[in-house]
Design a protein that fits this description.
2-enoyl-CoA Hydratase, Chain A, domain 1, three-stranded mixed beta sheet, alpha/beta, Lyase 2-enoyl-coa Hydratase, Chain  A, domain 2, about 15% strand, six-stranded mixed beta sheet, 9 strands, 10 helices
Length: about 270
């Protein structure tokens, strides 16, 4: 992982940059349409783990260098892994696809542009908020390659867009644009080309000013509702709120309300 401006190696890399409370994670192999190699996936898992472990990092921002987010996997490099049924993430590190523990507890805002195929869509769907450039071309092409989308698309497309809308794209491999993605709930905003990262950073910065414990609790409860059902999430509401109300951040929230000023949260 690096934030230096040197050219990427042939196998690509993941750049990281600390920008205040934001942890930027950049996909860097533009000469190959940011096609993923095994080395890149290991670095991606390590980047998310580093963000998770760093108390100064409150929000991850996932983005890509060059004109395209990613054309997907360099499939020939992953054949053995796929045959063995292994995930693309690195065991023991935060899963970028949010399917297997350890899961991140901090939010991720994604900025998408250009070609966004296969695992690019699945990384998008694993993010919490997504900003898409108008030039985005999305597709789950796996059925055209004799495999299927097995890193979250079959779950999350159905969850957000409904069965028929999801099957239309999962079963045909057809492309769809940013405005269709917005209508189906896969992205939250569409912006002019080139503005996606700045807008993602703007939203991430706003999240970073909120109370970190409350942000994490909100993510955890919403995810529990999706994974385990409403009753499991409801059962957590009272005791989680009780824990939060005793935090220093909650006390600061009350003080800032009384003093009519912006709160300054410490994550304690």
């Amino acid at each position: 992982m690096t934030s230096e401006l040197t050219p990427p190696p042939p196998e690509g890399r993941i750049r990281v940059e600390q920008r205040g409370a934001l942890f930027l994670i950049g996909i860097d192999r533009p000469a190959k349409l940011n096609g993923f190699t095994p080395q890149m996936f290991e670095q991606l898992s390590r980047a998310f783990q580093r963000c998770e472990d760093d108390p100064g990092s409150r929000v991850a921002v996932l983005h890509a260098l060059g004109a395209n987010f990613s054309a997907g996997l360099q499939l020939d490099l992953f054949e053995a892994r796929l045959r063995a049924g292994l995930p693309l993430s690195t065991e023991g590190l935060v899963d970028p696809f949010q399917l297997r523990p350890p899961l991140r507890t901090k939010p991720c805002v994604a900025a998408m542009q250009g070609i966004c195929f296969t695992v690019a869509c699945e990384l998008m769907l694993a993010s919490d908020i997504v900003i898409a450039s108008e030039d985005c071309r999305f597709a789950q092409l796996e059925v055209k390659r004799g495999i299927f989308a097995n890193h979250g698309a079959t779950l999350r497309m159905v969850e957000r867009a409904g069965w028929g809308n999801a099957m239309r794209y999962l079963l045909t491999g057809a492309e769809f644009d940013a405005h269709v993605a917005l209508r189906l709930g896969f992205v939250q905003e569409v912006v002019r080309p080139g503005a996606q990262l700045a807008r993602a950073i703007e939203i991430a910065e706003r999240i970073a000013t909120q109370a970190p414990l409350a942000v994490s609790a909100t993510l955890a409860n919403a995810r529990k509702s999706v994974r385990e059902g409403h009753e499991a999430a409801i059962a957590d509401l009272g005791h989680v709120q009780s824990r939060l109300i005793d935090s220093e951040d909650a006390a600061e929230g009350v003080r800032s309300f009384r003093e009519r000023r912006a709160a300054v949260f410490k994550g304690r």
